[in-house]
Amino acid sequence: MSDLVRIELEPLGRSLVVERGTPLQDVLFAYGVEFPCGGHGRCRRCRVKVLDGSLEVTPEQARILTGPELAEGWRLACHSRAEGALKLDIAQWETAILADDSQFEFTPGQGLGIAIDLGTTTLVAQLLDLRTAHVLAVRTALNPQAAFGADIMSRVEFALDGHGQRKLQDLIRSGLGRLVRELLAAARTGEASVSKIVLVGNTVMHHLFCGVGVEPLSHVPFEPSRDGLEVFPAADLGWDVPGNPPALFLPCLGGFVGSDILAGLLATRMPDSESLIGLIDLGTNGEISFGTRERIVCASTAAGPAFEGGRISAGMRASTGAISEVSLRDGQLHCHVLGGGPPRGICGSGLVDAVAAGLDLGVITPRGNLAGNGLWMLAPPVALAQRDIRELQLAKAAIAAGIRIVLRRLGAEAAEVTRLYLAGAFGNYISRTSARRIGLIDFPEEKVEPAGNTALLGAKLALFATPARPQVEHISLASDPDFQDIYVEEMNFEVV
Fold first, then answer.
1. Which end of the chain is more exposed for a tag (fewer CB within 10 A), N or C?
2. Pick from 188, 124, 203, 19: nearest CA to 455
3. CA 263 to chain centre
4. How is the beta sheet containing 345-346 ordered, strand by strand?
């Protein structure tokens, strides 16, 4: 018997040859299969359908999947191994990854520069000519660490298990090294020297890339082991880059507020602002910053994965097949599906829209109760359950409470905020009307501005001049004596 087996992937029309017994989790992430719970068999999101061949029904499969699902050939990739030839339906989709094409002021430099936004879910890298600030090439990818958990705490948990941290470090360094090689090849730069590489990311990504222990981030008070500027010669990372430039990972600001938010502050010019402005990055970990050139206060709150479709019964990333917008026309629901075609699930922006519409229809009460039999069909087969509404309530309450406490620490009122920037992909696509309707962002719509990928823009600014770390006060929401009370107050949806 051969020690190699072939796996055919439909509808991609791709095939790969692996060693017999290879865990599917090790090979399918690169082809779009998601493992949000890190392969613990809790979320069902890594389901694949066996079209030909067989996969064992393990006890975990029997516990999580229904009898009809198993009979139809559905299996959990996280608990399956390739013991023989297989043909799998993986329902492949592509995810849009937010880059940046902003124009900005700069002082010309020499050579080339590379800016990298190391996100929990996605990676974006751009190659710039430092004389002109022109972007010569762009490369994006999914973060390969996501095969071991969709959120940062899942990564921390994996990192603390045996040699997990080294594995995650090696994965991200090699993954980014590949993007860097692709950038240089695409731009056909030859032997032109790269002068500097700048990386930004949240605190967990900073620690995992830099080889800094994550144990202090696993428990209260969630303070980083090191939060300063980290510098590596490119060769020490295993990257073959002309000129062997330094790779600078910008410093964190405190707790789970990382250098991606520092970059966002630079991009929005908060340290230079005379008027009060805010920056909010909505994701599994919501980062909140408000301030002026006189004083900036920031905080982070564990919003949970609802804004990215996680822990939602039909949740998925904002990719082909996702309901991304829900609107009401003459009292009827209309769902926009990314890429057209039938819906596969719903992403964060669609979820916020759906709940806002449900409030207007009376299908959802201000307390978050779902009327009827506890299941609301949006567009077959996608429906929302009561627990989905609760997940969004938990996420929105955490963000809304965080905003109130940060502003209170500044001695400011929401009405004093002249501009609120929403960073990241979710902030770029969310409906401001729906966000205000559910009480997530209770600011006048004209003051709220999608800001795109501020992390990447800030990293590009740092290519031209390594920024001085602004004076930013980081506060721990968990230690604020009023946080729980405010959090409970914000659980209800606003009544407009």
1. N
2. 124
3. 16
4. 332-337, 322-329, 345-346
**Contact at 8 Å (CB) between 18 and 7?**
yes
Phi, psi for residue 465 in degrees, rounded to 5? -165, 115
Contact assessment for residue 316 and residue 303, using Cβ atoms and an 8 Å cutoff: no
CB 313 within 8 A of CB 286: no
Taking the model in full, what pTM does it have? Answer: 0.82
How many whole angstroms separate alpha carbon 168 and alpha carbon 17? 24
The tens digit of pLDDT for each residue in 158-180 reads 999 989 999 999 999 999 999 99
CB atoms within 10 A of CB 211: 12
Residue with tokens 């997940």: 391
Fold for 4-89, please state it.
Ubiquitin-like (UB roll) (3.10.20)
- The mean per-residue pLDDT over the stretch 321-325 comes to 91
For 178, half-sphere exposure in the C-beta direction (CA atoms, 13 angstrom radius) is 11
Q: How far apart are CA 85 and CA 6, in angstroms?
A: 5
Whole-number Å distance between alpha carbons of 318 and 224? 30
What integer pLDDT is reported at residue 38 of this predicted model? 62
Interatomic CA distance for residues 258 and 260, integer angstroms? 5
Q: What is the pLDDT of residues 126-148, one digit of tens each?
A: 999 999 999 999 999 889 998 88
Beta bridge partners of 82: 22
**Where do the DSSP E strands lie in 83-133?**
86-89, 112-118, 122-129
CA atoms within 13 A on the CB side of 328: 15
The bridge status of strand 296-302 relative to strand 472-474 is parallel
pLDDT tens, residue by residue, 332-389: 899 999 878 889 889 889 999 999 999 999 999 999 999 877 789 999 999 999 999 9
Integer Cα distance of 120 and 284 in angstroms = 9
* Residue 398, helix vs strand vs coil: helix
pLDDT the model gives residue 357: 96
List pLDDT tens digits, range 335-345.
999 878 889 88
Those residues whose C-beta lies under 8 Å from the C-beta of residue 191, and which sit 6 or more positions away, are: 242
Say yes or no to pLDDT of 93 above 50.
Answer: no
Contact (Cβ atoms closer than 8 angstroms) between residue 376 and residue 345: no
Fold observed for domain 112-268: Nucleotidyltransferase; domain 5 (3.30.420)
Kindly state the helix (H) or strand (E) to which residue 345 belongs, with its residue range: strand 345-346
CB 28 within 8 A of CB 77: yes
Provide the residue ranges of all domains of the chain, joining segments of one domain with +.
Answer: 4-89, 112-268
Distance CA 206, CA 230 (A): 9
Share of the chain residues as helix, strand and coil, in percent rounded to the nearest 5: 35, 25, 40
Q: Give residue-wise pLDDT tens across range 21-76.
A: 888 887 887 676 767 666 667 667 778 888 888 888 888 888 888 777 787 788 88
Query: Which residues 6+ apart lie within 8 Å of 394 measured at CB?
Result: 303, 304, 306, 491
